[in-house]
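step=encode ok
step=design start
structure_in=
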C-alpha cells in the first residue's frame, strides 16, 4: 500500500516551482518587451556599474533561471544568481518603499492607483527558492531525467 502523505509530499513543490519559474520568466520577458535599454537606463540611474551589461545579465538570469526552475534543472545551483538578482533589487529599488508590495493610494473612476512596491515580493521569491533548495523541488525534474539517461541509457530509451 502506498502512503498517501508521501505521494502528496513529493508533489508539494510542483506548484511552487511552476509559479516561481513562470514569475522569473515573466519579469525577464517584460524587460525584453520594454527594451533592455530602458532597464539599463534604470540601472544607470541607480548607479549600477556597467548598466548595459548588467541589464542583459539580469534579463538572461531571469529568463534562463526561470526556465531552469520551471523544468527542475539544477535548482540549487541556479538559485544562487536568482537570489542575487532578488537581493540587489530589494536593496537598491524596493527598500525605500518599505515592506508592503501593494500600496493602494487612491481609488479613481479609472480604477485603483498604486504606489511603488516594497521588498515583500522579493522576500517571498527568496523564501520560495530556499524552500525548493532545502525541501526538494519535486518530480518531473530535468536534471534527474538527464542523469538517469546518462547513467542508464538503455533504461531511459525504453521509457
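sequence_out=
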Amino acid at each position: 500500500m502506498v502512503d498517501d502523505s508521501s505521494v502528496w509530499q513529493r508533489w508539494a513543490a510542483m506548484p511552487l516551482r511552476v509559479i516561481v519559474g513562470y514569475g522569473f520568466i515573466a519579469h525577464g520577458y517584460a524587460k525584453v518587451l520594454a527594451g533592455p535599454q530602458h532597464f539599463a537606463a534604470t540601472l544607470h540611474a541607480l548607479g549600477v556599474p556597467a548598466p548595459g551589461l548588467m541589464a542583459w545579465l539580469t534579463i538572461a538570469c531571469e529568463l534562463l533561471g526561470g526556465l531552469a526552475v520551471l523544468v527542475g534543472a539544477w535548482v540549487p545551483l541556479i538559485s544562487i544568481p536568482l537570489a542575487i538578482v532578488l537581493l540587489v533589487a530589494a536593496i537598491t529599488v524596493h527598500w525605500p518603499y518599505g515592506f508592503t508590495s501593494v500600496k493602494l493610494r487612491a481609488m479613481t473612476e479609472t480604477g485603483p492607483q498604486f504606489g511603488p512596491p516594497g521588498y515583500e515580493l522579493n522576500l517571498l521569491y527568496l523564501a520560495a527558492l530556499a524552500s525548493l533548495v532545502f525541501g526538494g523541488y519535486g518530480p518531473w525534474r530535468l536534471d534527474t531525467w538527464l542523469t538517469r539517461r546518462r547513467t542508464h541509457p538503455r533504461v531511459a530509451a525504453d521509457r
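step=design ok
step=annotate ok -> The mean pLDDT is 89.
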